[in-house]
Amino acid sequence: MKVDRFLNHQIDPLFMDEIGREFARRFRDDRVTKVLTAESSGIAPAVMTGLHLGVPVVIARKKKSVTMTDELYTEKVFSFTKKSEYELSVSKKFLSADDRVLIIDDFLANGQAAGALVKITGKSGASLAGIGIVIEKSFQEGGNLLRKQGFRVESLAKIESLAGGVIHFADTKREVYAR
Amino acid sequence: MKVDRFLNHQIDPLFMDEIGREFARRFRDDRVTKVLTAESSGIAPAVMTGLHLGVPVVIARKKKSVTMTDELYTEKVFSFTKKSEYELSVSKKFLSADDRVLIIDDFLANGQAAGALVKITGKSGASLAGIGIVIEKSFQEGGNLLRKQGFRVESLAKIESLAGGVIHFADTKREVYAR
């Protein structure tokens, strides 16, 4: 499934603005203080969500850069797409026990990246308002694993199957979340 | 100089929105059809600029991913911050001779990344409206090299010196561009 025309390689900013508006609407009453995402394809939906909620966006980085020498929260992630392991890191100064975090990402499949962001949130002592996903591949295990742990996962589109080259969407209106 | 509190590691989306609005204002009459940036710290200002101009944003990627098999425009970049070379790639389907490109990036120092984006634009046959930079370190050579080539470079903040640990800003209102 290729989404590079509007979601990651090329971005439609007006569509991304609507995505941010919708996430903000769903978590409006949840006292979110920080949006957390992972570079780089989560940045656009996360920044638009932060814009509509009026809160800062923290971007977990894939590599420790030379200029990032603070103490870090770090978690390993295995990427099935890229077939390699990497680390996500967040400076300790940007997440604390006073924060309430909304995790935003473009895709949820195996839940590796979202799971790492959940662990980073836990390590910081912050509470987790939930996880907002643009496209969930619900035929993969990530979403269910996160919901079974009691996390609120809000996916704007859920794809049940790619069988025969056809995208089958779930009826998201009838979805029931484990909270 | 650390800007990770508002510009890259943690982002202030409302400030980023203002940055996008200002770039859009400066290039409003320039018939821009695409904003072009490099992952990952250019994404937020580029998406906000695209939002205010109402045009798509193309993100040059640092690695060829497994799912990106199209023909690519590719340029090498040497990062002085990370002390390593990497490649920036853009799928050929997102830039063509019909496009007029506005390059947006967070920083301009040696001009390595911006220079690669200029070359990618040239390879595609698109015309270049200009280059919008959030923070230019004008004591480094990148900005002058680009202006000497005749490109319009618009920097929202220009830092002339970091001597003695003090940030000295240029008076950007008195700037004269080579067009």
UniProtKB/TrEMBL annotation, chains A, B:
<dbReference type="InterPro" id="IPR029057">
    <property type="entry name" value="PRTase-like"/>
</dbReference>
<dbReference type="GO" id="GO:0000310">
    <property type="term" value="F:xanthine phosphoribosyltransferase activity"/>
</dbReference>
<dbReference type="InterPro" id="IPR000836">
    <property type="entry name" value="PRTase_dom"/>
</dbReference>
<dbReference type="GO" id="GO:0046110">
    <property type="term" value="P:xanthine metabolic process"/>
</dbReference>
<dbReference type="GO" id="GO:0006166">
    <property type="term" value="P:purine ribonucleoside salvage"/>
</dbReference>
<keyword id="KW-0660">Purine salvage</keyword>
<dbReference type="GO" id="GO:0032265">
    <property type="term" value="P:XMP salvage"/>
</dbReference>
<dbReference type="InterPro" id="IPR010079">
    <property type="entry name" value="Xanthine_PRibTrfase"/>
</dbReference>
<keyword id="KW-0808">Transferase</keyword>
<feature type="binding site">
    <location>
        <position position="137"/>
    </location>
    <ligand>
        <name>xanthine</name>
    </ligand>
</feature>
<dbReference type="InterPro" id="IPR050118">
    <property type="entry name" value="Pur/Pyrimidine_PRTase"/>
</dbReference>
<feature type="domain" description="Phosphoribosyltransferase">
    <location>
        <begin position="13"/>
        <end position="137"/>
    </location>
</feature>
<feature type="binding site">
    <location>
        <position position="8"/>
    </location>
    <ligand>
        <name>xanthine</name>
    </ligand>
</feature>
<keyword id="KW-0328">Glycosyltransferase</keyword>
<comment type="subunit">
    <text>Homodimer.</text>
</comment>
<comment type="similarity">
    <text>Belongs to the purine/pyrimidine phosphoribosyltransferase family. Xpt subfamily.</text>
</comment>
<protein>
    <recommendedName>
        <fullName>Xanthine phosphoribosyltransferase</fullName>
        <ecNumber>2.4.2.22</ecNumber>
    </recommendedName>
</protein>
<keyword id="KW-0963">Cytoplasm</keyword>
<dbReference type="Pfam" id="PF00156">
    <property type="entry name" value="Pribosyltran"/>
</dbReference>
<comment type="pathway">
    <text>Purine metabolism; XMP biosynthesis via salvage pathway; XMP from xanthine: step 1/1.</text>
</comment>
<comment type="function">
    <text>Converts the preformed base xanthine, a product of nucleic acid breakdown, to xanthosine 5'-monophosphate (XMP), so it can be reused for RNA or DNA synthesis.</text>
</comment>
<feature type="binding site">
    <location>
        <begin position="109"/>
        <end position="113"/>
    </location>
    <ligand>
        <name>5-phospho-alpha-D-ribose 1-diphosphate</name>
    </ligand>
</feature>
<dbReference type="GO" id="GO:0005737">
    <property type="term" value="C:cytoplasm"/>
</dbReference>
